[in-house]
Amino acid sequence: MVKIKAEPFAFPVKHDELALIVIDMQRDFAEPGGFGASLGNDVSRITRIVPDVKRLIQGFRNAGLPVIHTMECHRPDLSDLPPAKRDRGNPALRIGDEGPMGRILISGEPGTAILPELAPVKGEVVIEKPGKGAFYATELGTVLQQKGIKQLVFAGVTTEVCVQTTMREANDRGYECLLAEEATESYFPEFKAAAIAMIRAQGAIVGWTAHVDDILESIIHA
To answer: Record keywords: Acetylation included (predicted)?
Structure first.
């Protein structure tokens, strides 16, 4: 069995049960003028991981392995947006309001779209999620079950919020989870570091972490 060099110990790869999940690599989180920037964040921290995320996506495509994309967004009528979520953040610009790239985090709006460099190709699943975790109120669990997926490699943003939340949801559902360290990021470097430490603490209590090069090398030979 092929293993990926990982922390806290090697991750055994089951090639026919492995998929990549790319979390929320959206314009609203990564581009100037988007929702992330409106909250005062340095979005260049997000865009700098794009090359590594792209390499990871291409590696999975080349290996014939599933790639699943998620987007955090809400219905145009905001019926799936709890007031408790809308009321947080920047009081001057909230989810559903008009922003420089259309209504913020609303399905179908330009800012909600995945960055063009990482856009899904025909046949790849795109999950629109109203929450931080990708399993909440979505079809993700059904999709994974239908594809026979039991191992998940994670990339995307932000490490401590939507990525970690989805990994914890997946862990509780019995999936083996691996985070690609260079292909995930936070607006706050200390938050990313803390999330990585929590994920792999106590013998991979939530999951494993590994470098992109080691992941790509292993799936080629899996």
So the answer is: no
